[in-house]
Amino acid sequence: MQVFRGMNIGTAKPNPDARERFGYHLVDVADPSEEYTVAEFQAAGTTVLDRVESSAGVIVIAGGSGLHFRSLVDPLEFPPTDGELRVQLEAADADDLRAELIGADPAAGEVLDMANPRRVLRAVEVLRLTGATPTVRAASDQAHAVRRYEPMREFTAIGIDPGPEIRKRIEDRFDGMLNAGLVDEIAALAPTMGRTARQAVGYRELLPVIEEGREMDAARDEAIAATTSLVKRQRTYFRRDPRIRWIPWHHEPEHMVRSAFDQLEKDTLWSS
């Protein structure tokens, strides 16, 4: 979500001094009204990676969702999407979409979570736009490589385990955002925020406070709970990746930095 201009406090965006010092990329590249997709992120990020690598530079991929991370290092392919068709499918009955998918691909349930309406909708969208069924897509060479965690570019990955007290840190972090003016930030952005930006955790829960007069305390609690849930899902996602080397959380950042460099020094890719 740091790709969106103006969404600064709620995305913990680095300040201008840090961005200039470390040379950040893919920050403030889209307006909140835009539907900035993972495919667009992948295309822009790949361009940056290729340029930096060609000059023998080192680039750090920090933060972000597991899907966005893998879109830069693994051969993920993103089929096209269509706004008008998406609106049509969102208005359709979920059972009808499942029936359409099964009619075209009786084995779809073996490779797709048919109980997940978002995944079913997306599969039907891809089917209508490209003719490719879930079974065909799952059988591609790229899909096999993704499932086996075979990257398209070499990298070293360090993960920081959040530890048992993550809920308290999430709560303190969000309250810090509120004290820094998050509500005012969202109020200024609300009239121009598109669907993607509105789904950002923290923003999604506070928008009704601004637009509908909802109680602030309840929205705060929901935002903290949603952040905690997101952390758990992303931890599970990243934990499946055998390429990531994990270090424990420590209250002193310098301690984690040393642990990370200890891991990097063991890697022949980094040493070379």
How do the strands and helices of this protein lay out in sequence?
Blueprint: H1 16-22, H2 38-54, H3 66-73, H4 83-90, H5 94-104, H6 117-130, H7 134-138, H8 141-147, E1 157-161, H9 166-179, H10 182-189, H11 195-198, H12 203-211, H13 216-239, E2 244-248, H14 253-265, H15 268-271
Parallel strand pairs: 1-2
Structure, described:
With about 270 residues, the protein is mainly alpha-helical. It folds into two domains: about 15-35 and about 155-270, Crystal structure of tRNA isopentenylpyrophosphate transferase (bh2366) domain (Helix Hairpins, Orthogonal Bundle); about 85-140, no CATH class. The chain is built from 15 helices and two strands. Strands 1-2 form a two-stranded parallel sheet. Helix 12 (about 205-210) runs antiparallel to helix 13 (about 215-240). The two termini are about 35 Å apart. The model has no long low-confidence stretch (mean pLDDT about 95).
Number of strands: 2
Termini, distance in Å? Answer: 34 Å
Which spans have pLDDT < 50 for at least 5 consecutive residues? none
CATH architecture of the largest domain: Orthogonal Bundle
